[in-house]
Model the fold of this input.
Amino acid sequence: MIASEGGLPAFVHATPLEYLERLLTQNRLFGDDIQLSGIAEEDGRQVILTSQPFIHGSEATLTEIELYFRAMWFQPVTGLNAGRRDSPAFYRDLDETLVLDAHQGNLIKDDNACIIPIDLILVRADAALQKALEPLLS
Done:
């Protein structure tokens, strides 16, 4: 993701290194245990193989998701979607982290009612993206 010249965020495909950095960020921020299993070739293309623990639980509500992120100092970002249509986005200026694709299928409520993120798109916002996000923060 980059900030376009018009000031609005524009989405681009992540490089393999950016993808791996996102997985490390997921582990660091949310205590996940995503592991790199290897790299393989599929249909003439290289693919990255990862694994993570299976989590038993139920779907979190949108309200629970928002409260979860607000408790960690993230602010909702209005009008910005990536991944699944109409999925929430959140931003935390403390570490310049943008969370995308935070829909109900990517956050699970475990048996102890704890919210656990499993497949978010995490982006470190550079200065241009931070500026583009300012009017979208609620």
Remarks:
- The radius of gyration is 15 Å.
- The longest strand covers residues 35-42.
